[in-house]
Design a protein that fits this description.
alpha+beta, ibrinogen binding protein from staphylococcus aureus fold, 4 domains, 6-stranded antiparallel sheet, 5-stranded antiparallel sheet
Length: 530
């Protein structure tokens, strides 16, 4: 990924200064502590100026509607304090100029506003785009006193420059470099970014081997042709420096398209990791619960011996002492003599009743534990299916479709839950094949799309997509193809051999209160895909 440098900011400033000059600030929003949206209007046209001071994605641009959606911006109900400060001083203010201090990664918006006494004041919003030191600072241009910052910088963070309300605003320390336009010596391309203004490290690598005249033209923004590389990993104001460039309409489009792509990608990967971690933790907790229950069931398996002890005591009631610490009897079930430990404080009948109670308690406990273990086994199957869906999600929308299953409490109202998107569809002549990507689509395939005579496919004993073959009397070749699709779209897709079961839709049943996409089946056939 390439960084937003001073040369890109210079090109953006020259391109947007005409629109921003004499424009009016309509609305200010702060979705997170690191990004801002300033709605600006001029001549009947409104644009959204997007400011990002995240150390990874710091940049500034006018957002298009599509790229605003890609950034997944959510406006909080309660704005942060700094946002309220900006609204107080800048909303409805008129911008009278914008500028970039020479060779700096700072974009300044100068605005006319009015204070509480209805006196005209001049303010400056300084947007500093400097990696981990990026910041947004509002200060009074007349007094040079800071009114507020996106985040304060104290003496413990910087010995060079403190930033906070009531302190004077000063520029960052200047770097000592050469101006390429006034330089006539040799060029060390490996240190180009260290020796000259307006060259970032990433841009210097693109300029390797170029003549000094070319370098001067670049810094003077001659013959601009902004572009983004085909793999979206690089952008440049000069597309001829890139391999397989995709040329952009203007500098702003280049910035907007490039960074929105990476922001969307980062949010997708972050959400995917979060969902996978949460689901795997649930799987591990459920498996631990099943292991504990299995141990308890193993202990309760011996409860039959208590019934036998009670029966033997009652059968020998008149041959044994009433109060004794043991009873020597013949075990007629196993054909051997045994000794039963007794409580000498109890009568024989009371000892027998005690064993019957232990037997009944163990029998009930074993039954309840077995039922609960079976429910948890179904939960494991559901969670593994959910894990498979998350791993195979291709974009942010796929994850948002799964979200209600992972975080049901995050959906305030059932009406807010998204409808299942259409499953993958393959047409084979008069037959149609549907493949579900997640539990919602799987459920939609079974409950809405399938008819009684349609064939349903699923891998045996592993998570995977539901595959539906619609059409009467499909040929064996098509059935085999559907079985291969079921294997391909499963967690066992890379296995050398796997079983795929299939049956008619009328043989499927969804149990009451079953998890999304869960079905039971009968009269199934199995195909081994090798």
């Amino acid at each position: 990924m390439i960084t937003f440098d001073a040369l890109t900011l210079k090109a953006f400033t020259e391109e947007c200064s005409d629109f921003l000059t004499n424009a009016r600030i309509q609305k200010i929003q702060q979705p997170t502590r690191r990004d801002f949206i300033i709605s600006v209007r001029k001549g009947g046209e409104s644009r959204k100026l997007y400011i990002n001071i995240n150390p990874q994605y710091y940049h500034i641009c006018f957002m298009s509607k599509d790229n605003e959606n890609k950034r997944r911006i959510e406006i909080p109900q309660k704005p942060p304090m700094f946002c309220m400060l900006l609204r107080k001083h800048l909303e409805n203010a008129a911008i009278y100029k914008v500028r970039q201090p020479k060779n700096e990664r700072i974009f300044e918006i100068y605005a006319e506003s009015y204070n509480e006494l209805n006196e005209k004041i001049y303010l400056c919003l300084a947007i500093e785009l400097m990696g981990k030191h990026s910041n947004v600072i509002l200060y009074n241009y007349d007094t040079n006193i800071i009114l507020g910052c996106a985040h304060n910088v104290g003496s413990e963070k910087s010995r060079e420059r403190e930033l906070a309300g009531t302190l004077p605003y000063i520029y960052p320390p200047k770097q000592i470099k050469n101006d390429i336009n006034n330089y006539n010596g040799g060029i060390d391309y490996s240190n180009l970014w260290k020796d000259f203004y307006l060259f970032s490290k990433s841009f210097s690598e693109l300029c390797n081997g170029r003549s000094i005249e070319d370098l001067r033209n670049y810094t003077n923004l001659r013959n601009l042709c902004p572009a983004v590389s085909e793999d979206k990993m690089l952008f440049s104001l000069y597309g001829n420096l890139l391999d397989n460039p995709i040329y952009q309409e203007n500098v702003n489009s280049m910035i907007d398209n490039y960074f929105s792509y990476h922001q969307e990608k980062e949010k997708f990967l972050s959400l995917k990791t979060h969902f996978l971690t949460d689901t795997r933790q649930k799987i591990n907790r459920t498996k631990n619960s099943i292991n504990k229950m299995s141990s308890q069931i193993e202990r309760e398996i011996n409860c039959d011996k208590y019934r036998l002890f009670g029966d033997l005591i009652m059968a020998n009631l008149y041959n044994l002492k009433e109060y004794s610490d043991k009873a020597d009897v013949f075990d007629y079930e196993n054909n051997k003599n045994i000794t039963i430990e007794l409580n000498p404080a109890l009568t024989l009948k009371d000892n027998a009743n005690k064993f019957y109670k232990l037997y009944n308690k163990g029998k009930t406990s074993k039954q309840k534990l077995s039922e609960l273990k079976n429910e948890l086994s179904q939960t494991i199957d559901y969670l593994e299916q959910l894990e498979y869906s998350i791993e195979n999600a291709e974009n942010y929308e796929d994850l948002m479709e799964i979200k209600p299953e992972i975080e049901p409490d995050s959906v305030k109202d059932k009406s807010d839950k998204r409808k299942a998107t259409e499953p993958e569809k393959i047409i084979k002549g008069e037959y149609t094949i549907y493949i579900g990507k997640n539990n919602r689509q799987n459920d939609y395939i079974v409950s809405k799309l399938a008819k009684d005579e349609d064939l349903w496919f699923h891998t045996k004993d592993c998570a995977g997509s539901h595959v539906l073959l619609k059409g009467n009397n499909p040929p064996e070749e098509l059935i085999l193809e559907c079985a291969k699709l079921a294997k391909q779209h499963s967690s066992g897709g890379k296995s050398s051999k796997i079983g795929v079961i299939y049956t008619k839709r009328k043989n499927l049943k969804k149990p009451p209160k079953a998890n999304l996409g869960y079905v039971t089946y009968k009269n199934e056939k199995e195909i081994i895909i090798d």
